[in-house]
From TrEMBL:
InterPro entries: Ice-binding_C
Ice-binding protein C-terminal domain residues: 158-182
Protein name: PEP-CTERM sorting domain-containing protein
């Protein structure tokens, strides 16, 4: 998901800025395998800038960041199989995340789509000026938001062949006959 990491990031020191990513993946499972689930994981990294004056008092400026993640699995012929989403906001630092599907049992072809939107806001504040003069200089805090190392994991398991079920039933029949003979003897 290198493309997602490149696109799902933005920053600003004045006003509002945003960016997004749309991705689609088609997965065809080998015969004899089924998808039992999938997950998307990574780390959010956000920065809310410094909003305090040099004296430690709150400044009047603001910074905000937000990210929306949506992930959906669907069959070309049958509609949605699984959908998940998450919203994150006011992230200042690193925040690991995992979005996991419910248990699935899907064979053949499945499509995965993802939509991610990042948004940041930053408005300046003024340092205190002279008591009877103009306000001090403007300070522009930096607001940032991005996804680091997004990873898509697909969970699969082998599907027993019909011959395997036949052998299992034949084995159970042999065990049943052996028990019956023991009881009769």
């Amino acid at each position: 998901m290198t493309d997602a990491a490149d696109m799902a990031k933005t920053s600003t020191t004045l006003g509002e800025n945003g960016n997004g990513y749309n991705g689609m993946y088609t997965i065809t499972l080998r015969p004899g395998y089924r998808m039992t689930g999938f997950s998307v994981s990574g780390t959010m990294f956000g920065g809310l800038g410094e909003i305090t004056t040099p004296g430690g008092l709150p400044g009047e400026g603001t910074t905000k960041n937000a990210m929306k993640l949506q992930f959906e699995a669907y069959r070309p012929e049958g509609g949605t199989v699984s959908a998940m989403h998450a919203d994150y906001s006011m992230v200042d630092g690193k925040l690991p995340f995992v979005l996991a599907s419910e248990p699935l049992s899907v064979t053949g072809t499945i499509n995965l789509s993802t939509w991610t939107m990042v948004n940041v806001n930053s408005y300046p504040y003024y340092l205190p000026g002279h008591p009877d003069g103009p306000p001090g200089r403007e300070v522009y805090p930096l607001a940032t938001m991005q996804v680091l190392k997004p990873t898509l994991t697909i969970y699969t398991s082998a599907v027993p062949e019909p011959e395997t079920y036949g052998m299992l039933l034949a084995g159970m029949a042999v065990i049943g006959l052996a028990r019956r003979r023991r009881r009769a003897a």
